């Protein structure tokens, strides 16, 4: 079986870290023997924009549809405004391909740098709504520049969108025997979050075997640092998911280890795998970017293709490298280069 | 000079912790000799609601106007829905008295329990917008119960409201020689937060002597746990302020130490001082609630009345008790009662 991957290395450190993820994917395929990858590279991103006045080719979305998955490095560069670089590439793909599930594992790997003083078992999966809600882009600016100026930003929560993300989380929890925690804010957001809580309650009735919890986003944010062990599968809205997964990155080793997958569960369109970190222009080209988040995202891709044993083995290989400690990038107090870390993970995978 | 205080002990542990704050206020007044407090108690809250069908007397707001400040314990109790207990008491006072500044110090006191592994200097002041924005309560629910159901929640950001909170933060920073950090999310909330960033930029031009920083809320949330020392005065919206101050509570000793003040800077109406924690019905009446957050809020009240030297001395007294460690409530691994802790702080204040 051959998986067709569209590779968009993107901007800044994107290309450097993506190279290492591909090394690891190839090693997994080689060791297994029953599957392989076929990569096609697309030079889209901010440099492309500076040359062509657009973030991707005109038929870019059409072209991407033919692939089984997209592997993306990072998007964004000084000089190109966010609303272009993000809205015309990253957010566009998430939306048009209806990648409504943003899966972000928050797991403290063995050997990862510890932020919290107490030893906590940190092993949760955040299921973030990825297609609507606070990110709907709907709003209004009235009386611009006048004293009475007022700006409205409207979050749009559909029943369909809210139900399907919550249901996804319950399916995930059921499969793995875990609990589901909903994060919302019904005591202040009196329409959207009251609705979210209702739908969560409704959907939970279909899963009597799954334990459920419900937290206000402020309390959840506090418990992410005081007692993260209480969370297993977490389901939340687009904005809250954005925030809590970055707290998650903070407690589980830093952005250098934060991975994400944008999933279209119907598989009508390709899903996209990308590290959470950005393009980090300040360190681009210096070969010191940490490739572990990109490698973790590659491991999520293996899971997505039904190769869960390899997804898990990649994580174990990463843990070997972290625990060994001699081959890490400067952000983790090491002095290895990006490709040395990628090679170390590949070697560790080989040895198992 | 006598300050007239309306005391609303409220629900759950509210009355227990308020008693201790008042002990400390009285000791400060006694030691100073130039000011005193005159307290009037109001039995408003959920018990009052169960008896009278309302959270406060009909002329409650009118009555409160005659006071210099409100000292509130906690509101909320099982059986009374949040939208009643909060919207008809706590949030009502914040709004109707135009307490548009929510001041929350995030400071790791000497001797406070440490959440983060690294030693960071944590000493920031979060200036949270407290009157509008995401909490405006504006929205719509369409096609209820139908498959096409959609729920809208609209944040309302006025120029007046945005400008005055940002200006407040700059004034605070200027006074204390600190930097100001704005927390927003312009790359996703394309109306409200783009506007916020613009106003921040505009106001900052009036304060060339103040250093400024701007963070996305996700990045800020991560740096609250990875490197909180970079933040001094922080200004942010209602919802983001709610979230980041709870992360702040998490890194600076827990909810037992999280204090807040709801300020009306024009002094047209009274300001309100309240610990951030809730009514904690599970431990109410057991005399084990931690009074330190309520005492810290009392110290903010002393600052507000121009008695900054006493505000600071109360914090030092709290640090003495924390560092001594023998008189702390169970949430801080001690076995003292609420009033023993209050007494210990009062005694420490006496000894200085
Ligand atoms: C770049 C930005 C729009 C994006 C988001 O907010 O979703 C990023 O923070 C993320 O978490 O993937
Ligand atoms: C009780 C709730 C409405 C309130 C808020 O969200 O403002 C609380 O969390 C707070 O931070 O004071």
UniProtKB/TrEMBL annotation, chains A, B:
InterPro entries: ICDH/IPMDH, IsoCit/isopropylmalate_DH_CS, IsoPropMal-DH-like_dom, TTC_DH. Its EC number is 1.1.1.83. It catalyses: (R)-malate + NAD(+) = pyruvate + CO2 + NADH. The keyword NAD applies. Residues 4-345 form the Isopropylmalate dehydrogenase-like domain. Its cofactor is Mn(2+); Mg(2+). Keywords: Manganese, Metal-binding, NAD, Oxidoreductase. PROSITE patterns: IDH_IMDH. Pfam families: Iso_dh. Belongs to the isocitrate and isopropylmalate dehydrogenases family. This is D-malate dehydrogenase (decarboxylating). The lineage of its organism: Bacteria, Bacillati, Bacillota, Bacilli, Bacillales.
């Amino acid at each position: 079986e051959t998986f067709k991957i569209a590779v968009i290395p993107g901007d800044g450190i994107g290309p450097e870290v993506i190279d290492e993820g591909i090394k690891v994917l190839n090693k997994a395929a080689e060791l297994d023997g029953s599957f392989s990858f076929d990569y096609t590279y697309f030079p889209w991103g901010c440099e492309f924009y500076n040359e062509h006045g657009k973030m991707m080719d005109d038929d870019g979305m059409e072209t991407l549809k033919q692939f089984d998955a997209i592997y993306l490095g990072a998007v964004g560069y000084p000089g190109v405004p966010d609303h272009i670089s993000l809205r015309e590439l990253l957010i566009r793909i998430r939306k048009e391909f209806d990648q409504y599930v943003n899966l972000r594992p928050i797991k403290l790997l063995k050997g990862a740098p510890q932020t919290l003083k107490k030893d906590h078992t940190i092993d949760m999966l955040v299921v973030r709504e990825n297609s609507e809600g606070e990110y709907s882009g709907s709003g209004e600016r009235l009386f611009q520049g006048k004293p009475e100026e007022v700006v409205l930003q409207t979050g749009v929560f559909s029943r369909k969108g809210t139900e399907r993300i919550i249901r996804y989380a319950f399916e995930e929890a059921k499969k793995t025997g875990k609990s589901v925690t909903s994060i919302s804010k019904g005591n202040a957001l009196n329409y959207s979050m009251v609705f979210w809580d209702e739908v969560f309650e409704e959907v939970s009735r279909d899963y009597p075997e799954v334990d459920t919890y419900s937290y206000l986003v402020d309390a959840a944010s506090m418990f992410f640092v005081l007692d993260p062990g209480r969370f297993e599968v977490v389901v939340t809205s687009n904005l809250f998911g954005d925030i809590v997964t970055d707290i998650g990155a903070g407690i589980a080793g830093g952005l250098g280890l934060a991975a994400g997958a944008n999933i279209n569960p119907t598989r009508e369109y390709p899903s996209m795998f990308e590290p959470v970190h950005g393009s980090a222009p300040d360190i681009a080209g210096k070969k010191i970017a940490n490739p572990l988040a990109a490698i973790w995202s590659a491991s999520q891709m293996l899971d997505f293709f039904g190769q869960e044993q390899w997804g898990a083995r990649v994580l174990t290989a990463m843990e070997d490298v972290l625990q060994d400690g001699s081959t890490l990038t400067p952000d983790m107090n090491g002095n290895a280069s990006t490709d040395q870390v990628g090679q170390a993970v590949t070697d560790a995978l080989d040895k198992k």
